[in-house]
Amino acid sequence: MSGYDYVEEAMFGKSIFKNESTMYPEFVPPELPTREDEIARLARNYRSLLGTEGSFSVNVAIIGDAGVGKTNLCKYTMNRFEQAANSRHINVKFLYYNCHSFRSKTAILRNILSENFRIQSRGFSDEEILDMLVKRLTKEEIRLIIALDEANMLHSEDILSIFHAGEYFGSEKSMISTIIISRPIEWRSLLNIPLSGHIHDQMDISGYDRNELLQILEFRAGMALYPTSYNDDTLNMIADICASSQNARHGLEILYRSGKLADLKNEPFINPEYIRAAKSDVYPELRRDVLEELRTQELLAALGIARRFKSTGNTSTSVDEGYENYVVICEEYDEESRGKSTFRSAVETLHKVGIIGKTVGPIDEGKRGRRAKITILDIPATVLVERIENILSKPK
Ligand SMILES: Nc1ncnc2c1ncn2[C@@H]1O[C@H](COP(=O)(O)OP(=O)(O)OP(=O)(O)O)[C@@H](O)[C@H]1O
Ligand SMILES: [Mg+2]
User: Fold this and answer.
1) Of 176, 205, 234, which residue is a domain's last?
2) 112 and 68: one domain?
3) Alpha helices, DSSP H only, in the chain?
4) What is the distance of C-alpha 257 from the center of its chain?
5) Based on the domain organization, do 72 and 167 belong to the same domain?
6) Is residue 41 part of a domain?
7) Do residues 133 and 105 lie in contact, with contact meaning Cβ atoms separated by under 8 Å?
8) Is the four-CA dihedral 348, 352, 355, 357 of positive or negative sign?
9) CATH code for the domain of 232
């Protein structure tokens, strides 16, 4: 080997990124170009919480396709809402929950109590927990706004009972409001008449057109990259690619990956060649962090299924076949394999988070479930296998 220090070069060498962390999935930018109307509408919806003669609980649904900025819209607006209220001595508290990580009402309520009020609620029922929460909020006059992102991971009864808790002490003292966030198809599966009766405003967020995507790309590139590393052609080329999906994440991931490729090749500029390479590597429907939120057993199940697809080249498989592969994978990773019913519920979760498709009835329903077919979605099995293996090989 030469005396060249590749590690040091990677650590301190040139990069076209001046602020790479602004491209991370959890980053919420300081502005949301082209979403001004939605920001105002969302904030306005919660004005009644600020009233002096009692406040009314508000439930708003934010519905829209992948990457249209629902999560960002909610976090951006409500963090500011909380700050502005608090600076006027109105006690508003905004809490954000992604239901991929917090998968039940119980998990969310317990977390609210322990993280924010230092109350341990183990051993109490959901009703008792809600009761403790409402009492505490009432005593301290806190208006709580809970965002439930990816809300389709919860049962609609769970959401309903949170709505009810908000209205617990009659309409003058409503301490819990919510924001429900979901993609449209999932929302339809969740929505029922009792639930919709409690939604004060359903905000349908449309996809971005090419021009809007270009504006967003300009803003985000300006924040993340040195100006010499790209030009108008770069951003136009990316906007052309994601115009069909109308998905901002699609464009931003291509920008990020093509920038990383430039860095890797020690190039000072994002060449069209890197954009083309990045394009084929990005699956805009799949949130980058979705795999990381899965439990080990679910990852093993996903890997079993994906390996099956990879080895057979088929586009569908059965639960039984998937299970066989899963058992082998468990051995490989030195994990104890669980029974088929655990596997089925893992499949159900993988379906809900959009990693696999599924045809024919609910998988967890007895015999009928045996015939359920697992299908693969847009993301190629080889890519899925590679990404899951990466996560599983990381030290826990
Ligand atoms: N108006 C905007 N300005 C700047 N960045 C944006 C804008 N809209 C979306 N983004 C960025 O695009 C990406 C996707 O946005 P976000 O995560 O809010 O989408 P989403 O609608 O919640 O998608 P999903 O349904 O997949 O959860 C994020 O990186 C976000 O920062
Ligand atoms: Mg989101």
Assistant:
1) 205
2) yes
3) 6-12, 36-45, 70-87, 105-117, 126-140, 156-166, 184-190, 193-196, 210-224, 232-242, 248-264, 272-279, 296-312, 319-332, 340-352, 366-370, 381-393
4) 20
5) yes
6) yes
7) no
8) positive
9) 1.10.8.60
Q: 304 and 357 share a domain?
A: yes
Q: Cα of 67 to ligand 1 centre, how many Å? A: 5
- Which atom of ligand 1 is least distant from the CA of 212? 1
- CATH number at 177 reads 3.40.50.300
Shared domain check, 363 and 327: yes
Q: Whose CA is nearest to atom 23 of ligand 1?
A: 67
Domains: count for the chain: 3
Res 365: pLDDT: 47
Kindly state the helix (H) or strand (E) to which residue 375 belongs, with its residue range.
Answer: strand 373-376
For residue 385, what is the domain's CATH number?
1.10.10.10
Cα 63 to middle of ligand 2, angstroms: 10
Ligand in closest contact with the CA of 250: 1
For 229, the domain range is 208-279
Pocket of ligand 1 (CB under 6 A): 29, 32-35, 64, 66-72, 183, 216, 219-220, 248-249, 252, 287
Given ligand 1 and candidates 72, 250, 255, which is best to mutate, with the most ligand atoms within 8 Å of its CB? Answer: 72
On whether both 275 and 318 belong to a single domain, the answer is no
- pLDDT in the model for residue 360: 58
Sole residue written with tokens 């009020």:
117
CB neighbourhood size of 114 (10 A): 13
User: Residue 84 CA to chain centroid, in angstroms?
Assistant: 26
Tokens coding 133: 């929460």
70 CA from centroid of ligand 2 (Å): 6
Each residue of 149-176: pLDDT tens digit? 999 999 999 999 999 887 755 445 668 9
- Measured by CA distance, the residue closest to atom 26 of ligand 1 is 66
Ligand 2 center to 71 CA (angstroms) = 4
Residues of the chain with pLDDT under 70: 1-2, 52-55, 168-174, 360-371, 396
Query: Residue 386 C-alpha to ligand 1 middle, in angstroms?
Result: 25
**Nearest-angstrom CA–CA distance, 330 and 84:** 51
**Per-residue pLDDT tens over the stretch 185-200:** 889 888 887 899 999 9
Name the E strands within 261-306: none
Residue in the structure block whose two tokens are 């920038």: 259
Same domain, 349 and 387: yes
Q: Give yes or no: residues 46 and 171 share one domain.
A: yes
